[in-house]
Design brief:
There is one protein chain. The strands form four sheets. Strands 3, 4, 5, 6, 7, 18, 19 and 20 form an eight-stranded mixed sheet that branches. An eight-stranded mixed sheet has the order 8-9-10-11-12-13-14-17. Strand 3 and strand 4 form a beta hairpin. It has ten helices and 20 strands. The chain is an alpha/beta fold. It folds into two domains: 112 residues, Urease, subunit C, domain 1, CATH 2.30.40.10; 280 residues, Alpha-Beta Barrel (TIM Barrel).
Amino acid sequence: MTRSLYPRLLTFVLLSAGMTVRADIPAGEPGGAGLAILTQKALVVPLEGAQVINHAMILVRDGLIEAVGPQGEMVVPSDYEILDVGNYWVCPGFIDLHCHIAGTFGLNDTVYQTNPGLRISPETVPGNPRLKLAVAGGVSTVLFLPGSGSNMGGQGVLLKTGLDEYEAMEIRNPGSLKIAQGDNPKRWAYGMGRIMMAWNLREDLSRGKAYAAKWEVYERDGGVRPKRDIRLDVFRDLAARKTQISTHTQYYRLVLTTIIMLAKEFGFATYIDHGSFDSYLATPLAIDAGVAAILGPRQVMWPRPPRFDTDGQVRGSAWGFQKLGHKRIGFNTDAPVVPEEELSLQAAMGVRYGMDDSNADGVRGLTCIPAVTSGLENKIGSIEPGLDADLLIVTGDPVDPRTSVEAVYQDGRRIYDTQTSRRRW
């Protein structure tokens, strides 16, 4: 069989199979040819079940994954392009739930301590150079967020990185409501302590929850239409669990407040998006409240102070959460704090500093875990039928820093490959 990682715009014949293989129609184009990818190893990483299929075939049509399974159990439809990547692996595109580089200057409006109505989506710049590097690093989806200068920074937006128009990039808006409980908001104006931060948050969360409840009653029972408050509209999505609160929260006591206040007291879907230092000590409560730990950019804990309990060794935050039984551990960059294209290195550091990767937890933390955490598990994050064909062709284990991304497919279309142009700084 002819092996070609990058079929050119021509028609050629696989004599051994007796098929015509076309590469002149982009895979995923409506009415065009489908794509059959043959690979040594597919990291399919569903939330449950087998994580790997060896000697796999992935069928892609109309931008979606049509089927996946062992090559010996599948048949390539006659009109499909065949892409045999040889010993290279295929995995889902990486997902970063803490990104600040999808625009020009970011958004950190600190006029008010809480800004739930602020939206970062108009700041998005499709195809900017930093997003292009992100694609080269295998990052296919980001949650573009406001900064953490204020206690409630506003609404993020979930975006696909490799597309040229905003309308095509947007997956969900709002992608989250950004809340910061770390040290950054303490610098606001006269210096805001944690007691005042908690008071501010409760005030807006209470107003927002009451506002959402009024709309829920109106939509169910009719009556007098509530007066719209654009500032509080995001709470309707939160109450309906259509979006989540992504929380800049670091130390144990801050994470404890995150879980108790946001998840338990107010009942909103919430996740940790820093989880540094001794935050892993809150793991049992996080598990009970369904709060995922999306860790970064700090991945390492030093063996001091003693409460870190790292057995005198340098350990990772992922190690701490996993040690106490957490199954929903992901990674982020807080780009540009860590460059977006180095997202896979964040997972590599988690594994290097103690995380057990025997069940592919490293690559799961780049793919299916952030997808489930952001409510997108029915769209991205795994190689399963019906999901978007956001796929990477890689030279080996994505959590090994020696591995390189050779090609990126988004919605079934090849948007990057190293044969055409290897992107560098």
